[in-house]
Amino acid sequence: MCRRVFVTGATSGIGKEIAISFAQYGDNLLLCARREEKLAELKAELEADYDVRVDTFTLDVRNREEVETKVPQAIKAFGGVDILVNNAGLAQGLDDFQDSSIDDAVTMIDTNVKGLIYVARKVLPFMMEQNSGHIINMGSTAGIYAYAKGAVYCATKAAVKTLSDGIRIDTIATDIKVTTIQPGIVETPFSEVRFHGDAQRAASVYAGIDAIQPEDVADIVLYVSNQPKRVQISDVTIMANQQA
Ligand code: NDP
């Protein structure tokens, strides 16, 4: 059966691969992120390669008003939602906490935590109404094992896991499922974003590690979404074989 899948942060890395893998599976897609031209490129690519519907809209998940207006509108125009992949997120900076930028901290909290809450709160009423749905939140191994110089990013990803668990408990009387995906180091533009475009520093993150690829994470997301109604996978941790 063709599902209605809403992916945030679909213009790059893990989110883009998740969109591709759901399209390959035959699901219709509602995609958002901030970069309009990247959304248009992906829509054209997916519609050319697969027999699926792809709706897109620009969204900055940090902007509560924008989320509250655009998300319900987009879902209604799309015809509803079965799966939400709350993937939009980022890290900024890599410094000892005492030296780290408060602006970077605010950006990470606004995107990874508040943005996820804004989106989930606007999607859940549609799922409650139909008594079914699946929220898949992108956490990280950083939320399980804090690492040096990453205190705030790690805290945001620990928050993602706790939010998922809380939403699951609060929707326990429904057929809604909630899953946290917790990848380790994945080779994407994430590190370049983190280091404000410093490609050399970003490449050093993956040195000596056969890092997992975004399609490895997308495979897991598809697997988790394909379980029978009675099965809920609460969380999955996936990391490179060499990651400590
Ligand atoms: P990328 O930088 O490749 O992709 C991030 C995506 O998030 C982009 O599509 C970007 O789109 C979107 N995004 C960022 N900020 C916003 C915003 N304010 N509003 C809407 N969309 C936004 O990184 P990854 O694919 O690696 O990261 C995806 C998720 O996976 C993140 O939540 C990240 O924390 C998590 N993760 C990544 C790991 C890694 O090692 N790469 C490991 C574990 C978890 P645009 O710029 O167009 O808005």
From TrEMBL:
<dbReference type="InterPro" id="IPR020904">
    <property type="entry name" value="Sc_DH/Rdtase_CS"/>
</dbReference>
<protein>
    <submittedName>
        <fullName>SDR family NAD(P)-dependent oxidoreductase</fullName>
    </submittedName>
</protein>
<dbReference type="InterPro" id="IPR036291">
    <property type="entry name" value="NAD(P)-bd_dom_sf"/>
</dbReference>
<comment type="similarity">
    <text>Belongs to the short-chain dehydrogenases/reductases (SDR) family.</text>
</comment>
<dbReference type="Pfam" id="PF00106">
    <property type="entry name" value="adh_short"/>
</dbReference>
<keyword id="KW-0560">Oxidoreductase</keyword>
<dbReference type="InterPro" id="IPR002347">
    <property type="entry name" value="SDR_fam"/>
</dbReference>
